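Run log, item B.
One chain of 285 residues. Sequence copied directly from the ordering sheet:
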Amino acid sequence: MTVVFDGIASGLLLFLISVGLSVTLGLMNFVNLAHGAFAMFGGYVCVVLLNRLGVPFLATLPIVFLASALLGVLLERTLYRRLYGASHLDQVLFSIGLVFMSISTAHYFFGAQQQPLQLPPMLLGQFHLPGLDIGVYRLFLIVVGLAIAFALQWMLTGTRFGAQLRAAVDNPRAARGLGIDVDRIFVLTFALGSGLAGLGGALGVDMLGLDPGFPVKYIAYFLIVVAVGGSGSIKGSLIASLILGIGDVAGKYYIPQAGAFVIYAIMVLMLIVRPQGLFGRTAAK
């Protein structure tokens, strides 16, 4: 039971970081392999606020989200928007270039070492139940992850913004004809995806670590979540993250010599059964 609980926490952390990629890739049809760089940026902002400025950990989280979202808006307005109509190969090459630039920047300012992060006492320790040890911070991740998942699902399917976003992606010309500001919708969507990546990166420092190699080290995991869950599906990303998180933790616990083999084996098997992902695409095709 402890392995399952830790796997759920790990899966929801994976969801928090990767759901932003599901938003930009699935709903905007933009292959942004620099998504991990936004997560790394959020992690470094959290560490600087906490360790150098003395800001409480919980107070850093909304600041991290806003800072990452603003960085996303800046890059979307200056760089990304120029490639919306480009081929996926051009988008991949462009975003990979941003990844290596972000790695060099982080290395220059922070060095190659892992960044320390001290969680507040209220998030430390464990609850001990019969057959189950519940880590307080892992429980916190589960609560935050589920809350964000439900909020995103409601926003995309039950609000005017979600309807405008789907219309803007499916047929931008028709959307403009109906009075929808497509450019504004894309900016807000990219800001949302970037902000969620930064928030996930900040929440993941304690479990995943933080160093300049973060964007390259974990980008495969983010892509696996989007591929298995179905591009653009919040529910699919959530379920895929839980399956992969539990499988990864259980594999490392029971057969540690296999390393990350288990999570890739799960991905292959699931994509053989459902090549389009668990829930396919809900927007652009």
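Observations after the first pass:
- Strands lie at 126-129, 132-135.
- The chain has a mean pLDDT of 85.
Flagged for discussion on Thursday.
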